[in-house]
Amino acid sequence: MAYPAEPLRRTYTVPPLELPGRTFAWGERTFLCAILNVTPDSFSGDGIGSDPEAAVAAALRAEAEGADIIDIGAESSRPGAPESSRPGAPEIDPREELRRLLPSLEAVRAATDLPVSVDTYHARVADAALAAGADIVNDIHGLRHDPAMAAVVAGHGAALIAMHNQRGRPHHETMADIAAGFRATLALAGAAGIPRERVILDPGFGFGWRPEQNLEMVRRLGELGSFGLPLLLGPSRKSTIGFILGLPVDQRLEGTAALVALGIAGGADIVRVHDVREMARVAKVADATARANWRHTAPVPVVLALGSNLGDRAANLRAAVAMLEARGVTVTRRSAIWETPPVPANQPPFLNAAVAGETALSPRELLVVAKAIEAELGRRPGPRWGPRPIDIDILFHGSGRTDEPDLVVPHERIAERAFVLVPLAEVTDGPLPVLGESAAALLARLDREGIVRTEERL
Q: Known catalytic residue: 238?
């Protein structure tokens, strides 16, 4: 693959894919599909078994690290597993697959607004998973294994990730074999009434190919752009990397990164990965280079609110500020730490603070950073207004407004919250962006009873 002198410009014959929680505007950036194995074991060593709480924690960590899709699978592909998607192994019974899958899928669905994908080739499992809230079926056989699968996907109006699986098929020429598999899948999808714009194609890295053929697939990935559909590439921790580097599965991060970057340069729209945080960074740099979609931007003013009412509250606030500074926020002003009555009242009191500074991160990027810090400091799913070790809100970003389903800046209830305005008044001067009044003026109209300055320092 000769590295192109011009930015990557693929032609798509379909519009952006709209799913709950995400719009996939193909070609704008690379999207990340996080692997979540609810198996007793897995080839990559990350199977968490039938533990819904662990599945939720893993899903939220992936979301905080930059995932766009959570892909949940309940069948092992580990060599020697009794029921495995590897060649020659017996198929897992759909009843056992559902027993493993549904508790975790339902818990993850309740915990995140991200699109959820179910990794299965059984129509019965896909039907139950979609009924339980999944948005996507990830079929490693591309509708060519279970004759009922296409009708299930169509009936639910789901999106489809369709892989070409070369296992058990004669090899002629790598890209021609993949293209033939894609054509067969698209014919089945079309006949069942699955809209073309809801199909994502996966060439099947590691599924029936020799290592050198997997590398050829990545090198020639751009040829598959002729289908005009988004492409997913899944090289994460695969054995080809192990053969090249002579390393076990838990030491294949750098090899995965190399293939992810090369795949993006070749036109991959989604990468399916285990190590979300690291591959999000790889994808960002690869996108900036291959898609030429990045420009250095001058820092803009930013104000954030912080709160904690679990654990060592003041230490949580200080740790969050330190982590923000390490991840792209230059803090120039810090409020005092204030103790405030909880809302609702049946929980411990909060410590609240605010910081002001500047950042070159976009509002979306800053939200990802904030969620990652919350997860690392122990925040877990719970009632929306429940107790938490840390809460980070973006109050202001620059002088403008951001209005997205999961991100509204300025924070829409600032003017009603004395516990936010008290520390905010200490780190801002004059009229606030968009609101047009100072924090002190807004605060003068509210009751600040019970808000007490502490001796703790931020």
A: yes
Strand partners, 409: 402
Contact criterion met (CB below 8 Å) for 234 and 205: yes
d(CA 5, CA 21): 35
Among all chains, which residue has been given the structure tokens 């549904």? Answer: 102
Q: Look up residue 112 and give its amino acid.
A: T
pLDDT tens digits along 358-401: 999 999 989 989 988 998 898 887 776 778 999 999 999 999 99
Nearest Cα residue to 269 out of 64, 22, 21: 22
Q: Which residues pair with 303 in a beta bridge?
A: 356, 396
**C-alpha count within 13 angstroms, C-beta hemisphere, residue 430:** 2
Which of the 8 DSSP states describes residue 82?
S
Q: What is the Cα–Cα distance from 34 to 1, expressed in whole angstroms?
A: 27
Q: How high is the pLDDT of residue 360?
A: 92
* Mean pLDDT, all residues of the chain: 92
What is the three-class DSSP state of 358?
A: strand
* CB-based contact 167:89 (threshold 8 Å): no
Comparing CA positions, the residue from 352, 356, 279 lying closest to residue 309 is: 352
pLDDT band at 27 (very low <50, low <70, confident <90, very high): very high
Q: What tokens appear for 372 in the block?
A: 């990652």
pLDDT at 57 over 80: yes
**Is the model's pLDDT at 1 over the cut of 80?**
no
Contact 111, 64 (CB under 8 A): no
Q: Distance between CA atoms of 116 and 98, rounded to whole angstroms?
A: 16
Q: Phi-psi bin for 300: left (phi > 0), alpha (psi -120 to 50), beta? A: beta
CATH class for the domain made up of 300-453: alpha beta
pLDDT in the model for residue 14: 97
CATH level 3 topology of 17-290: TIM Barrel (3.20.20)
**For the chain, what are the domain ranges?**
17-290, 300-453
Catalytic residue among 78, 109, 198, 272: 272
**Cα–Cα dist 350/329, whole Å:** 24
How large a percentage of the chain has pLDDT more than 70?
A: 94
Highest mean pLDDT among 38-42, 95-99, 372-376: 95-99
- Stated as kind and residue range, the H or E segment containing 357 is strand 350-359
Residue 391 CB burial class (10 angstroms; 0-12, 13-18, ≥19): buried
Give me the catalytic one of 10, 29, 237, 238.
238
Active site residue 124: no
Closest CA to 114 of 159, 51, 57, 71: 71
User: Using CA of residue 72, residue 73, residue 74, residue 78, what is the dihedral sign?
Assistant: negative
What the block records as the tokens of 254 is 């750098």
